[in-house]
Amino acid sequence: SLNITNRQTAIEVANYGPLNPDVENDKYWARKAVQFKTTIEDAKSARCSNCAAFIQTPEMMDCIVQGLQGDESDDETFAPEMVNAAGLGFCEIFDFKCAGSRTCDAWIMGGPITESVAKAEPTSSDVHYETIMGNRKGKQRPTDKELYSQVKAAARKKFDVYPSAVANAWVVQEYKRRGGSYRTEKASSPAWQRKEGKNPKGGLNAKGRASYARETGGKLRPPVKRGNNIRRGQFLTRMGNMNGPERDAKGEPTRLLLSLQAWGASSKADAKRKGAAILAYHRNKKDK
Question: How many CA atoms lie within 13 A of 93 on its CB side?
Answer without folding.
Answer: 30
